Amino acid sequence: MASFKIFYLFILLPFINLITVKAGLDDGLRSFYCSENLTTPNSAFQKNLRTLFSYLSSNATANKQYYNTTVAGRNHSDTVYGMFFCFGDVPRQLCIARVAEATKAILSGSYGNCSLSTDVYFQYEDFKIRYSNRSFFSTPDLTSDSVSCSYLDGSNQKN
């Protein structure tokens, strides 16, 4: 009888974890941006965006904390650049859930027209996701909230 309880516990744990992550996804949102440049629901850009989100989700399950990729379109305007970043202290399962939930929320229209926007970022307490129709790789991000480090000179300390 006890072995059945343990078996059911292991079956229910992933579902409880996903429910907790879903509830925490909106709570941890620090900032987001959705450009006013919109596409149409069945455009080539939207198809490429869904492919991009699939790539991001599958690479989150590959135990990556950061991943960026490009889905090229026939026309340059249909190309989508995207990335996710989970902070270093985020457990692997939580990073996987964050990427899955964020992509699902964006595509579902939970954030208005963000799903149709050509330039989007979401900054959470422990996670960031971004996509755009312009390459932003190796470009400083001056628009979103970012965590900064303070470098202190400890050489002049009194003992």
Automatic annotation (TrEMBL):
Indicate the segments annotated as coiled coil, or none if absent.
none
| Lineage top rank: taxon | Eukaryota
Q: Which UniProt keywords apply?
A: Repeat, Signal
Report the Pfam families cross-referenced here. Stress-antifung
Show the stretches that span the lipid bilayer. Answer: none
InterPro entries documented for this protein: GNK2, GNK2_sf
Q: Which residues form the signal peptide?
A: 1-23
Ranges where the Gnk2-homologous domain occurs: 27-136
Recorded protein name is Gnk2-homologous domain-containing protein
